[in-house]
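Troubleshooting: if your tokenizer reports a length mismatch, compare your output against this known-good record of 402 residues.
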Amino acid sequence: MTVALSPARVRDIAELRQLYFEVYGHGYPVPLGSDPVVMRRLITDGTAHWLTARACGGALVGSAVVVTEPGSRIGKLVGLAVHPGHRGDGLASRLTGAVCEEAFGTGRLDSVYATVRVVTAGPQAVVVRNGFRPLGLLPNAVEVDGCETLALFARYADGVLDRRAPVAAVPERLSALLSAASTGVGIDYAGTRSVPGRSAAGAAAAVREAAGTTRTSGSTGSTGSTGTTGAEPIELIAAPGFVRRRFLELFPQAGDRFFPLHTPNAVLAAADGSFEAYADLDPVAGSCALVAVHPRPSAVAGALEGLMATVTRAGADYAETLLPLADTEALEVFLASGFVPSALYPAMRRIQDRLHDYVVLSRTSRQIDFRTTAVSPLLRPYLGAYLSAWTSTYLPLHEVSR
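Known-good structure output:
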């Protein structure tokens, strides 16, 4: 059957919503397929490349979108949907290839990433056929039909990976992830050393020493496995307009904030004022992205247990953060507080003529169950890396050997 691709129009919104309902039912957690206001904005404001597919009779049978934001040089492939009656003839792959070619054709993107469901192998095959490379797994990342794991893939513009900035050393717990990326992306990390990780208390003490603000034993704060620097309780302010204004006041320069395609709608503030953590909190999807921390990411040392408890009460069972691979101090803080290295995004951020690698660290309050996932051979090294890091975090060797 002949199918024609064309840019989405405002008049298509009603049909697009019906398509997403027929494909995903009520479980689709993304406003792009359900909220007419968001859909209209994406179609009209020039930040998205949105293609639709229509059968010869005029029925809308497919959709794919690459969303972008000014300045980040990163896009995200979202909203890929094909009507159940038109599956199996390559339409998903055709839509993916066409919308990515259009997005890269502008010359304004270094990469496009996709978070892919792994309940079946099909979505993984679609992105791989269109030049995407595996970057990692995000266990329990989203609530769709129950709690699901996502896979992270990215496609790069020509020459981007050749302009990466080298990283001298990383915490030892990231070594398995770097090895998986060497296989999955084809990057040589042989020159990057692994350094032994600090304990939670050691990481917190190092941060205090670096900041010149060592606390006395009588100072207030939470105690336990994450050290004594955190203040309890963590206050959650969920007021999107206020949070955005405050965020821009504290991070006025675009170079000071980097978490592409995420806008904070909540702030988690220490009661003693020692930090403010800005989050993109989505209770519908059951997820939370920690977008930025003021005055610096490592300021949450010792407070992440309280912060995670607050996020969980707000309806998010999964939290993630994005840190430079070269920021050993911040990585140590999150690793010491139960976050697990889940994905590696090489050449993610362009600064002048060099591109810098970033790490996704995640933590989930639900039991992880990989039995229902269809992990393709390309992703298996990342599954092994995640299991290795999770074991090092939550099942120490001395406990295993007893």
